[in-house]
Amino acid sequence: MRIAELLSPEHTFCDIEGVSKKRVLENLALFLHEGEGFSGTDADAIYQKLLERERLGSTGIGSGVAVPHCRVPGCTKITGVLLKLSDQVEFDAIDGKPVDLVFGLMVPQEHSDEHLKALASIAELMQDEDVRERLRSATSHRNLFDLATSLAG
Length: 153
What we know:
By secondary structure, this protein is an alpha/beta fold. It has helices spanning 3-6, 21-33, 43-56, 112-126, 129-136, 141-151; strands at 12-16, 60-62, 65-66, 69-72, 79-89, 99-108. α2 crosses α3.
């Protein structure tokens, strides 16, 4: 699955204040709620789903990257949000390092295969050190979007 299929310029945010893992998840829920392909559930319900997923194990995948994701009733299309945080946030990542790149994902209840393909695409993109550094150098929302979609190939 291509990153351009998961992300839009309207869901790409550069230099967002992180503060804490909780605040990052709250912001993600708000941004995901505003996405196309979604109806019904409010931002707080999305936040609760993100929290439920985090309780299963941190989505901090290492190297300063987190990929919070959840299945949400009322979601009709896989929706991604990319955040470059202005400050690093403790996220209980597997390598113990704080996070400053967050790729959130909201998935329809019944889309298991697409969910796994989307997570694999994001993980593949974010495992490349050069990609991470270039994303961290982004200076605007649009610049971050253009980098993320062009670097993904």
